[in-house]
Design goal:
- By secondary structure, the chain is mainly alpha-helical.
- The chain folds into three domains: about 10-145, Fumarase/aspartase (N-terminal domain) (Fumarase C, Chain B, domain 1, Orthogonal Bundle), CATH 1.10.275; about 150-400, Fumarase/aspartase (Central domain) (Fumarase C, Chain A, domain 2); about 410-480, Ribonucleotide Reductase Protein R1, domain 1 (Orthogonal Bundle), CATH 1.10.40.
- Helix content is about 55%, strand content about 5%.
- The protein has helices at about 30-35, 50-70, 75-90, 105-125, 135-140, 145-185, 205-225, 250-260, 270-275, 280-305, 335-360, 370-390, 400-410, 420, 425-435, 440-445, 455-460, 460-465, and strands spanning about 10-15, 15-20, 190-195, 195-200, 230, 265, 315, 400.
- A two-stranded antiparallel sheet has the order 1-2. It has a two-stranded antiparallel sheet with strand order 3-4.
- Helix 4 crosses helix 6 (about 145-185).
- About 45% of the residues are buried.
Length: about 500
């Protein structure tokens, strides 16, 4: 009686001995040892699909280069090429099973890729999985390569691809804030500094500021993307290119540029490039900048929507879920809150990257797995965070116009707009009177005979209060004591 497919195995052997591998698995003995050695994260590298695609692109480019320079049989090279293409197209990703956190500077990841692509190629050739006498994961699929140039290059290619989707989502979020800026362009409110009332502005200006800061981050991310374009293919173990044909580096670069669509270039010093991971630290820092600024925006959204009765209550965030198991009717700002937490995680990941970069020794940094995991996770979470913030929060924000109108009308901050016309001392005295008596600022100015009602109304128009229409005149010298009825002092 035949064994069930799930229990059938094949035997594979390496320098440490032999292991039984599930017959249907495309991975092999090196991957199996990694599964035993690194049960740490319980997250396979396949969670980062662009990393898997980056690995496949490197293997495909290498096969084409090796064929071109004549160090790999054309039939074998074509089989590897075809197998890698299937992975690039999204197939067999479930076979990339090694954990994202691993020892060995990424060797397990490289071998996982070698084994999967080799066994796919064997099937394409009508052979059994594990028939490495015909096509070898190391001698053929890994020809002219080392983990120490494949792995960092695959990370850089994968991150570059992942970054494109992040930037698309970032731009959509920026446009969502711009749409709200247009919608709220005529809504006056009180601006605040140090959480204290300052001067009037429009809610549209506030949301336009959110859009602008996200646009600046889009530019910074685009600029720093080029940090990832320098690769070290052809370096092999430490940058000396041992075991590699002298024409391989230029050939693999040309093919990888064509396959990935990225403007990649070879490092001028392969020894330095193989040991240095500073580009990852700089790129991670830019991600952190974006995350922290986005978190600040979410802080503002939570403050502006606080209440709804005993807080600022200027805007309403969409109600997404019940906010309490004990307080009926309570609704919390859960979408900004989750984005805040993404930012905290990105900041922590950036510190991890920094320490891992520092931890490198001599000709190699052994900690690229945690660098890759940290940055890929940051990009993934940020992209998802931006998406949920846009579709589940920003797009549905509404404004409490009556509340804002009442707050502006009773705010002494509006008197700042009148200082060019009545002077600072007089404005300060009237502001104090307004605070003590609760009287309307405009009425006090008119009653003091400092300006006509028509002039006050003109100067306190939304356009001028918000600075959209700046008109000032000479400042007359008016002492605080000259104001009729003032007994508050300057």
């Amino acid at each position: 009686m035949a064994l069930d497919a799930m229990t059938r195995t094949r035997t594979e052997t390496d320098s440490l001995g032999s292991l039984e591998i599930p017959a249907d698995a495309y991975w092999g003995i090196h991957t199996a040892r990694a599964l035993e050695n690194f049960p740490i994260s319980k997250r396979p590298i396949s969670v980062y699909k662009d990393l898997v695609c980056g690995l496949a692109m490197v293997k495909q480019a290498s096969a084409r280069a090796n064929k071109e320079i004549g160090v790999l049989d054309a039939e074998k090279a074509d089989l590897i090429d075809r197998a890698a293409q299937l992975v690039i197209e999204g197939r067999f990703h479930d076979q990339f099973v090694v954990g994202v956190i691993q020892g060995g500077a990424g060797t397990s990841t490289n071998m996982n890729a070698n084994e999967v692509i080799t066994n796919i190629a064997l099937e394409l050739a009508g052979r059994e999985k594990g028939d490495y006498a015909f096509l070898s994961p190391i001698d053929d699929t890994n020809r002219s390569q080392s983990t120490n140039d494949v792995y960092p290059t695959a990370i850089k290619v994968g991150l570059s691809l992942d970054l494109l989707t992040l930037m698309e989502e970032l731009d959509l979020l920026r446009k969502a804030f711009l749409a709200k800026a247009l919608e709220f362009h005529d809504v006056l409110k009180v601006g605040r500094t140090q959480l204290q009332d300052a001067v009037p502005m429009t809610l549209g200006q506030e949301f336009h500021g959110f859009a602008t800061t996200l646009g600046e981050d889009h530019k910074r991310l685009k600029e720093n993307a080029y940090l990832l374009y320098e690769i070290n293919m052809g370096a092999t173990a430490i940058g000396t290119g041992i075991t590699t044909h002298p024409d391989y580096g230029a050939a693999v670069l040309r093919h990888l540029r064509e396959i990935s669509g990225l403007d990649l270039e070879l490092a001028t010093d392969l020894v330095e490039s193989t040991s240095d991971t500073g580009a990852f630290m700089s790129f991670s820092s830019t991600l952190k900048r974006n995350a922290i600024k986005l978190s600040k925006i979410c802080n503002d959204l939570r403050l502006l929507s606080s209440g709804p009765q005993a807080g600022l209550g200027e805007i309403n965030l969409p109600a997404r879920q019940a906010g309490s198991s004990i307080m009926p009717g309570k609704v919390n700002p859960v979408i900004p809150e989750v984005v805040n937490q993404v930012a905290f995680a990105v900041a922590g990941a950036d510190l991890t990257v920094t320490m891992a970069v520092e931890g490198g020794q001599l000709q190699l940094n052994a900690f690229e797995p945690v660098i890759a995991h940290s940055i890929f996770q940051s990009i993934t979470w940020m992209r998802r965070g931006m998406h949920t913030l846009r579709v589940n929060c920003v797009d549905g924000i509404t404004v409490n116009r009556e509340r804002l109108g009442a707050m502006v009308g009773s705010s002494v901050g509006v008197i700042t707009a009148l200082t060019p016309h009545i002077g600072y001392a007089a404005a300060a005295a009237l502001a104090k009177t307004a605070l003590l008596t609760g009287h309307n600022v405009a009425d006090l100015v008119v009653e003091a005979g400092l300006m006509s009602r028509e002039d006050v109304t003109k100067q306190l128009s939304p356009a001028r209060l918000s600075g959209l229409e700046a008109v000032t005149a000479a400042i007359p010298v008016i002492a605080a004591g000259d104001i009729d009825g003032d007994d508050t002092g300057a």
